[in-house]
Amino acid sequence: MDSAEDLNYPQILFQYNHGFFFSKTMFTACELGVFDLLLESEEPLSSDVIAGRLGTSTTGMERLLDTCVGLKLLRVELNSEGVFYRNTEVSNLYLAKASPKSLYHNMMYYSKTVYLCWHYLTDAVREGKNQYERAFGISSKDLFGAVYRSEEEMIKFMYGLNEIWSICGRDVIAAFDLSPFTHIYDLGGCAGGLAQECISLYPNSTVTIYDLPKVAQVAKEHFIPPEEHRIMFHEGDFFKDPVPEADLYILARILHDWPDDKCMHLLEKIHKVCKPGGGVLVVETLLNEDKSGPLDTQVYSLNMLVQAEGKEKTSSEYSNLLRAAGFKEVQVKKTGKLYDAILGRK
Ligand SMILES: C[S@@+](CC[C@H](N)C(=O)[O-])C[C@H]1O[C@@H](n2cnc3c(N)ncnc32)[C@H](O)[C@@H]1O
Predict the structure, then answer these.
(1) What stretches pass through the bilayer (predicted)?
(2) For this structure, is 256 an active site residue?
(3) How far is the CA of 249 from the centre of ligand 1 (A)?
């Protein structure tokens, strides 16, 4: 940013200026089913055929496809019969709905919910609070009541949260040897993506997903196969209701949602019921100690401002919270991916 070249031609500023064009192009191609169609077709298709099959205008589709080529989400082939498009490997793997590693629901959640909240970032910074009320006209008093605007919305949000664990789940679960902990509670475990990673790596363990009643019911119905007896459910509110005794408590993307006093309340409650020798595994994205990066985590923290009540933290901030709640031998493991792991022992 400091070089003379940047000062004469501020390319980096232009990129930031239209950064959301890139996201919206990808979201729109996902939403219209471009990547699904090209995965199914197994042969490159022209823009006319794609527009016809997806029921869009040809002029709009052609521009969308060309921009996806620029974003390296599609490949273009020119031959004597015309111009044809096919998916890149990245799109087949992560953007087509049928892929086991698909991020489709995550993209749709960003497009339909997160994007609308970010429209009010200025208000969020001025007021220091999330923007659910402005964006959706729904009270954000009960944060997850606001996130789950309808059952349909809740299922999509749950798919979106779960998809990340098909990519990063193994790394955070393998960051520490969790085999001594056989009786595990995943607090706010949602659709169970991390619970499934856990029982696959530690087959002698059972994981109980503790979540709000409507979330636990949907997870049981839509996400966890009924024959999977190593994953159980506990319906409750972890702030108000008792938390049962266990060897290990997982808190994945929970502490970043809440202000420090609520995090402390929850951690102290867990410490009280945790078996001696047991522990708590915090899974979060970590800021550098001087908060100079990583950029992804910095913007996630702004996202917490716009959407939640908490923020992203440094490893020292999490470690201090764990120690203040009574946990000892706090260890931090960076995975090199988006999410890291912190283990505290009782
Ligand atoms: C940001 S999501 C994280 C989900 C999951 N741990 C993950 O990383 O994919 C927060 C989860 O906490 C649950 N939750 C929020 N408030 C809760 C409460 N008071 N008691 C129990 N669960 C709660 C939500 O329903 C949601 O499943």
Answers:
(1) none
(2) yes
(3) 13
- CA 295 – CA 298 distance, rounded (Å): 5
Pocket, ligand 1, Cβ cutoff 6 A: 144, 161, 188-190, 193, 211-212, 215, 237-239, 252-254, 257
Region 192-198: mean pLDDT is 97
Ligand 1 atom at minimal distance to the Cα of residue 162: 9
Over residues 238-288, the pLDDT tens digits come to: 999 999 999 999 999 999 999 999 999 999 999 999 999 999 999 999 999
Q: What is the pLDDT of residues 196-208, one digit of tens each?
A: 999 999 999 999 9
User: Architecture of 171-345 per CATH?
Assistant: 3-Layer(aba) Sandwich (3.40)
Cβ atoms within 10 A of the Cβ of 149, count?
Answer: 15
| Whole-number CA gyration radius for the chain | 22
pLDDT in tens, 94-153: 999 999 999 999 999 999 989 999 999 999 999 999 998 899 887 766 667 767 778 888
Domain with CATH 3.40.50.150 in the chain: 171-345
CB distance 156 to 326 below 8 Å: no
- At 256 the pLDDT is 98
**Ligand 1, closest atom to CA 241?**
20
CATH of domain 4-94: 1.10.10.10
